[in-house]
Amino acid sequence: MSFLCSDVSDVLRTLESAGVNFLWHPSLSQVSGSEALEVLEGCANGTVPLDILCLEGAVLFGPNGTGRFHVMSGTGIPTMTWVQRLAERARHVVAVGSCAAYGGMTSAGVNPADACGLQYHGEKPGGLLGATWHDPSGLPVINVSGCPVHPAWVVETLLALALGDFGPGELDPLGRPRFYADQLVHHGCPRNEFYEFKASAGKPSDLGCLMENMGCKATQAHADCNIRLWNVSGSCLRGGYACINCTAPGFEEPGHEFARTPKLAGIPIALPIDMPKAWFVALAALSKSATPRRVRENASVERVVVPPAIRVSRK
Amino acid sequence: MTRVVVGPFSRVEGDLEVTLEVEDGAVQQARVSSQLFRGFEQILTGKVPMDALAVVPRICGICSVAQSVAVVRALAGAAGVSPPPNGRTAQNLMLAAENMADHLSHFYLFFMPDFARPAYSQRHWHPLVVRRFEAMRGAGGVEALSSRARFLELVAILGGKWPHTLALQPGGTSRAVQKAEKVQLLLVLREFRKFLEGTLFGDRLERIAGLSWATLCGWRDSRPAAESDFRLFLEVAGDLEIERLGRGPGLFMSYGAYDDGDRPHFRQGLFDGEVRPLEQAAIREDGSHAWLADGAPRHPAEGVTQPAPDKEGAYTWCKAPRLGGRVVEVGALARQVVDGHPLARQLATSGGGNVFSRVLARLLELALVVPAMEHWVTTFEPGAPFCLPAEIPERASSYGFVEAARGSLGHWLTVGEGRIRGYQIVAPTTWNFSPRDAEGQAGPLEQALVGTPVGGRLGEVLVQHVVRSFDPCMVCTVH
């Protein structure tokens, strides 16, 4: 459903014109029931060529490895068995969303359904297809992770595959397309000035930086959410709440409250990955002491109370 | 008697299988089965209550905001806080945006494409329906998708993104609307209105909202069917007499939709010929025919969900919710019937819940809610707060009610020692697609399918109309 928010006009036919034809989509296709199963069976037995298999949702192994928590309707066969058969025939396999990629929220807590991803269980390689699996072109499962996924991440991955212009170098070490995973959510964050001065929000709806108190992981999260916006003009940070790093395996169990930053001696435990901690702390202390009144006062309120000053030229 | 297993269902959200017992070319008995169990209620158990804000919307990528509103209300109840007017209005608008987007997707992408099937090729309206509604190709679907994508910017402005916003908080919303943004919100709504009036209805929303049974046929015949998608729907519906298909149990329930502060915008209650108060305490979930241990009927506050995949006589992962032991139907029709909209009431009392009345009620809601949204935006008071602090106590018992697009959604929450001790979710499609209960009463869809003609040139198409008329969300159903 997130995919259907694409801002590409007439996204289905645009994809079609670029060579991407939908054989079956559960939410969109005309064919249903036995006609749909004919398509799936054709793909699984090789009589219908299958270029790209897209899976949404985690693979459910439970209970006790039987896969009966998710049976493909009308077949009596566990969905994991269908997915395995189809993956063997597909030229490429795409995991759409963090559940299909790594298990995601479905594998949180006690993981009641024994959920995992297509080629990962959390950050551990393996999953349904196994760590060494690759498609005939040498690509592993392409993990278009995110919860939800940005529609453009899906559209552009499909187009790149159709163009035949997508090699293993296009993926990061967790199998995510680098065109969005080589960015940090922090890039383009509209709260950047509050971050620079460590002028922090203390409660939901404050305008300040969400990293120090509100659980924000944008400085560590791989995605281009603040550069390529959501639903025309939004992002989590623009919505006033923390980035919870939903493109990463294991985001569903952060080991702390989602909206509260874990700290040690008053300093957030998780700092930007490639910055020496001592330097971060030193710079933070320095910038805090240099915070303009405007930034400090605006950080802890719902709307700007001190607008930027205008320089008056001296004559 | 022949047994027919139908599935998978395209153009419904999630996994659904229906088993039909057929005799003399018609359905004698139906069993409805949810084929997916993920265990979100167990996932939530043991977590800090506020973490549910991040978990719960992820139950479903289509009813995400509704799930958020339910948990937000449960947590607000536990904390003893209620959002200030601005926060309440922002929550209403995000929920309404999701609900209206869902009504639109249902009509254009899920329901109408069935009439473009070759089985109807001899009907006079068929070429036009193919042009407008053929799955993945019809011009109407393309226009609706683009309008929907633009419309959901409303949630981006108020809550960052759709789906899975974390902006909804027990004390309000995390994103204060600035004065200039009221104009942006109104602009998005105006564009949506333009699509609805120009393409879907071919008339003013206020005119559609004011239609009654007496004026509907006259309105339809006043212009050619090709002039709007709603007229075309009425033409198809009249020709095929779809009001004879899919008769539901005749009892309608609504938790009350959108919070006007002192009362819901659309009222709460149970309609069985007249409106009665809704007794939250009279809700029971019966697991007798679900693959769950301990199937005894329980109030959701005491509910348990423990898988028992080999249970004798069970055929679904879905429990059977009942109100005072009775089978009720939920959804847009139920909401408008309970609220007392004249057309919805007339439809309900003449033909009950059926394929026609369910679909019509969704379109009616588009005409009723979008003008309300325009009004809500004007009530934002820049300068007044959007969010109040909320502290969840160490021990609490609470619930949250919301009307999702598909009907009544409830979350029941128990907190002990600062952790979630119990979490039970009863979703709209849990009500509508419930299995039999311990008394042997069939669920709403199971009842609605009885008598549906099967076979011949139409095959299972009529069954598909009945199923889709409920706009099921199977993902939420079992969660």
Overview of this protein structure:
The complex is a heterodimer of chains A (315) and B (479). By secondary structure, chain A is of the alpha/beta class. Chain A has two domains: 178 residues, Rossmann fold (3-Layer(aba) Sandwich), CATH 3.40.50; 120 residues, Cytochrome-c3 Hydrogenase, Chain A, domain 2. Helices cover 24% and strands 9% of the residues of chain A. Chain A contains nine helices and eleven strands. Chain B has 479 residues and is of the alpha+beta class. Chain B has one domain: Cytochrome-c3 Hydrogenase, chain B (Orthogonal Bundle), CATH 1.10.645. In chain B, a hairpin with a 4-residue loop joins β7 and β8. In chain B, α4 packs antiparallel against α14 and α14 runs parallel beside α17. Classes of the chains: A alpha/beta (315), B alpha+beta (479). Chains A and B meet through α1, α2 and β3 of A and α1, α2, α4, α6 and α7 of B.
Question: Characteristics of this structure?
Answer:
heterodimer, A: 315 residues, alpha/beta, Rossmann fold, Cytochrome-c3 Hydrogenase, Chain A, domain 2, 2 domains, two-stranded antiparallel ribbon, 9 helices, 9% strand, elongated, B: 479 residues, alpha+beta, Cytochrome-c3 Hydrogenase, chain B, three-stranded antiparallel beta sheet
CATH superfamily of chain B: Cytochrome-c3 Hydrogenase, chain B
| Tally of DSSP helical segments of chain B | 18
CATH first level of chain B: which class?
Mainly Alpha
Which secondary-structure class do the elements of chain B indicate?
A: alpha+beta
- CATH homologous superfamily placement of the largest domain in chain A: NADH:ubiquinone oxidoreductase-like, 20kDa subunit
Biggest pleated-sheet summary of chain A: 3 strands, parallel
Tell me what the CATH architecture of the largest domain in chain A is: 3-Layer(aba) Sandwich
Number of strands of chain A: 11
Number of domains of chain B: 1
Largest interface: A-B, 73 and 82 residues
Number of strands of chain B: 15
* Mean pLDDT across residues of chain A: 95
Order of helices and strands of chain A: HHEEEEHEHEEEEHHHEEHH
* Assigned CATH architecture of chain B: Orthogonal Bundle
Shape of chain B: globular
Question: Fraction of residues of chain A in helices?
Answer: 10-25%
